[in-house]
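Suppose a colleague, Dr. K., hands you the sequence of a protein chain of 105 amino acids and asks what its three-dimensional shape might be. Before reaching for any lab equipment, you can write down a predicted structure in token form. Begin with the sequence itself:
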Amino acid sequence: MKLVGEAFFDVVRDTLHPFFVNSGGVMVRVLGTSFNVRAFPFDESISVAVVTGKVLVEKKGRQQDVLLPEEMVRIDHKTGVFSKSSYDPDELIAWKDDVLSFNKA
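The predicted structure, expressed as tokens, is then:
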């Protein structure tokens, strides 16, 4: 699947039919999980955040990382550098439940 924009996925593990998301040169291989991908062409980076399970994130075969629950990675469009961190799922993916979350606003 090719993605431009933001989407939340909840994918059941199926070793016979792997699920991939491609966006801006970044490939996410789903290993049975729920996760969020934010990939707008006007943003400085692409982000992948795992809620449950795990995913493999790869940038054009140069760098890859496995993400576990409450881990996310931002991949800079220009440099391809991966920045891995933790996150709060209640804030990051609240949008999918029509909830806006503000921090220190």
